[in-house]
Amino acid sequence: MWPAILTGDEITLRAPRLRDRSHWNRVRAENKDWLSPWEATFPQIPLDSPAYENTSKRPSFFEMVRMLNHEARSGRSYSFFIWHEKNLVGQITMGGVMYGALRGAHIGYWIDRNFANRGFTTQAVKLVTAFGFAQLGLHRIEINVRPENAASCRVAEKAGYVEEGQRKAFLHIDGAWRDHICFVKNNELIQ
Question: Is the pLDDT of residue 122 over 90?
Fold first, then answer.
């Protein structure tokens, strides 16, 4: 099942590849300020805590690609680069995949500001949702969005997700614990 390629009307979702490095580096550098208010950060944990991990060094691109593909082959998380023609325009991940009685996951995404408001993110969410329901047999998928991110809330709604409620201090984003709105879609084909 991995690496998977998902094709939509205007975009293609493809597993990260080592040869995508120059595209990735360019897009991420150009969008640093655009993305930083919405991206996960690591909370400070005291050095003497058993939960301490050294988060000062981010993985290299190659380490990231290897880790993302390992997680997909293990069935825990599926990350796709979003391509429009020959342009890398974003990334979408269906992570936290759980089976058993829950059969659920959550989706996170980002888009290049030069390709925002063109429906590409909504298409990507729909493709990954269909993959989760049809290929993985998931029952419930969540999208958790900061309330201030109106564009991302619209993506979830346009993709057919329904607002379920608010999660206080849910994720560490841009240096602090942030509230999120939880959007949910259930697979109606699984009872």
Answer: yes
